[in-house]
UniProtKB/TrEMBL annotation:
Pfam families: LMWPc. Residues 1-123 form the Phosphotyrosine protein phosphatase I domain. Keywords: Hydrolase, Protein phosphatase. InterPro entries: LMW_PTPase, Ptyr_pPase, Ptyr_pPase_sf, Tyr_phospatase_low_mol_wt. The keyword Ribosomal protein does not apply. It comes from the Bacteria. This is protein-tyrosine-phosphatase. Belongs to the low molecular weight phosphotyrosine protein phosphatase family. Signal peptide: none annotated. The keyword Kinase does not apply. CDD domains: LMWPTP. Its EC number is 3.1.3.48. It comes from Paramylibacter ulvae.
Amino acid sequence: MAADAGLDVVVDGAGTGAWHIGNPPDRRASAMAAKRGYDLSDLRARQVSAGDFTDFDLILAMDNSNLQNLRQMAPNGASATIKLFMDYAPQNPHREVPDPYYNDGFDVVLDMVEQASNGLIASLKA
């Protein structure tokens, strides 16, 4: 979406825990993404590293628990801004992106991610 908007940015994803390091995305997430034209086949899970807090300008958390974890993980001298992803979708009443793993809500989560991504892109372009 950022490239389509003409932005030259680096986008990466990581978890605050080490549970799935090296694994591809959930097959249901990949299938839902593919239906909307996103290819997740090259993605592999990794854990947030200390370097992320200086290598990236902005780190976005999907929920308050991960937001708190990220703030605790941030090393001294960290320059990245840490925010909730849904801050970029103020029109959405939900401030946290739910984990779709147990309720098969991958379509709802992707709707939320696209909505917040559009807001983030607008913010970056402004």
